[in-house]
Amino acid sequence: MPQSWVEHWPLPNGNKGLAHEELLATDSDEAEVIASRRRNTVLQTLGNLTIVTQGLNSAVSNSAWVVKKPELLEVSLLPINQKLHEYGIWDETTIEKRGKAMFEKALKLWPRPASQPTSSAQ
Question: What is the per-residue pLDDT across 21-72, written as a single tens digit (0 to 9) for each?
Fold first, then answer.
């Protein structure tokens, strides 16, 4: 999901989200405010990251998922991008799900070192 999602990525209820300036100007608990804040939060998570060339990123930057997904799958052979075929929609729930899966994969690939017993000198 692009950083500038408001124009091309409607909220789950179909409404347009609120821009940062609009969110700063309100303390409302209306559905659009809550949904916009949630979306801005998941933008900055592992599940919303991928690796693409600068050219591809520029070409599809703020495009809707139905435009962006086929381009990512066609141009990139990286496994991280090829797994995107599993997702028919790209929303907050999908991003959270993908982030958890990527985190679990990372833990398997790069396990933390086994704990070493500590010695206590007395």
Answer: 899 888 888 889 999 999 999 999 999 999 888 998 888 888 889 999 999 8
- In single-letter form, the type of residue at position 51 comes to I
If we measure between CA atoms, which residue out of 14, 34, 13 comes closest to residue 23? 34
Place of tokens 């309100």: 26
Give pTM, 2 decimals: 0.81
Q: How far apart are CA 45 and CA 26, in angstroms?
A: 24
Q: Residue 15's closest CA among 26, 27, 6?
A: 6
Spell out the alpha helix ranges (H) of the chain.
Answer: 20-24, 31-43, 54-60, 65-75, 79-82, 92-109
Closest CA to 1 of 76, 83, 86, 98: 98
Question: Which two tokens mark 34?
Answer: 């809550």
